[in-house]
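Practice problem 4.
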């Protein structure tokens, strides 16, 4: 099934599917697999200690795919200055840049006039309008179902996406709880031009850095097996339910402030679970979409399934339109 939208045209991809940034997991293998399958893969700068490590990974991805891929910049969570990493990506010819978790203004300004495509993750109408005013080409709007950092307003994807679509003139990509062809078609019906998936791309064979315990927690979990941590310090994020995640939440409930949480929410604690599989000493981001993920697939198998599901829904809609006459 061919799905052409403003996003496929803008990014030069076959399907309007973007792989999330996935700190410490989004390396060349995953990015190339997603791009080769028809979507937009991404490499996360959070995974690298210096610009030369990033340069090496970008070159590795280029050797694995001839398709477009992007670089994600989780502002405030990069081990090196964002400007330095951004310059490196530009030097290596990257044309798609996404920004999450902070103020993207200075970096959007750096890209003005370069022909680069600039994507910004938002969680509210206000943030989307601000990103557009700063020069973003695309906003990726994440509902509260999503994994990782989410908005403070607890707005679900079904409401947030049409609200954002109605509030900006640039293309909107839907994120949060989307894992399959049903989610893709729902997002398009809401007015989005594509989807971003994060959690679904952890449970694929090419996400080689994800520890089997982390993947198992996603495959075996239900929609109720996540927790929102860091709400007390104003940066809520959704994680898979583990003993350590519960410890973080208990610390917050007991009134522990940032200093009490500093070590518990660090990147080291994140890697302790997602890389080493230690759920008693670390945590891992995951959205409520884990309730819809039951198989470890290759990216190609996942995309084939999404396309098949989307085609079945399109055919169903077409049939209903012909019989009932109440659908476009």
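Answer key:
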């Amino acid at each position: 099934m061919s799905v052409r939208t403003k996003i496929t045209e803008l990014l030069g991809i076959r399907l309007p599917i973007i792989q999330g940034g996935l700190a410490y997991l989004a390396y060349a293998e995953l990015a190339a697999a997603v791009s080769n399958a028809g979507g937009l893969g991404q490499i996360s700068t959070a995974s690298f200690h210096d610009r030369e490590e990033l340069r090496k990974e970008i070159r590795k991805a280029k050797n694995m795919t001839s398709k477009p891929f992007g670089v994600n910049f989780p502002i405030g969570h990069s081990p090196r200055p964002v400007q330095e990493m951004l310059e490196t990506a530009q030097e290596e010819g990257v044309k798609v840049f996404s920004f999450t978790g902070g103020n993207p203004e200075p970096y959007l300004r750096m890209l003005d006039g370069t022909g680069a495509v600039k994507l910004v993750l938002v969680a509210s109408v206000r943030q989307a309008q601000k990103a557009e005013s700063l020069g973003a080409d695309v906003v990726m709007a994440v509902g509260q179902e999503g994994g990782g950092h989410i908005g403070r307003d607890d707005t679900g994807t079904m409401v947030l996406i049409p609200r954002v679509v109605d509030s900006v003139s640039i293309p909107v990509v839907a994120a949060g709880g989307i894992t399959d062809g049903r989610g893709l078609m729902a997002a398009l019906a809401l007015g989005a031009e594509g989807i971003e998936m994060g959690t679904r791309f952890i449970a694929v064979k090419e996400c080689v850095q994800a520890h089997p315990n982390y993947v198992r927690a996603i495959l075996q979990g239900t929609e109720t097996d996540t927790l929102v941590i860091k709400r007390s310090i104003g940066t809520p994020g959704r994680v898979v339910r583990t003993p350590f995640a519960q410890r973080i939440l208990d610390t917050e409930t007991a009134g522990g402030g940032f200093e009490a949480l500093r070590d518990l929410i660090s990147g080291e604690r994140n890697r302790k679970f997602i890389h080493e599989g230690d759920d008693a000493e670390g945590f891992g981001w995951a959205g409520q979409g884990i309730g819809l993920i039951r198989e470890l697939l290759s990216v190609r198998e996942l995309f084939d399934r999404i396309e098949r599901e989307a085609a079945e829904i399109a055919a169903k809609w077409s049939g209903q339109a012909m019989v009932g006459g109440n659908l476009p």
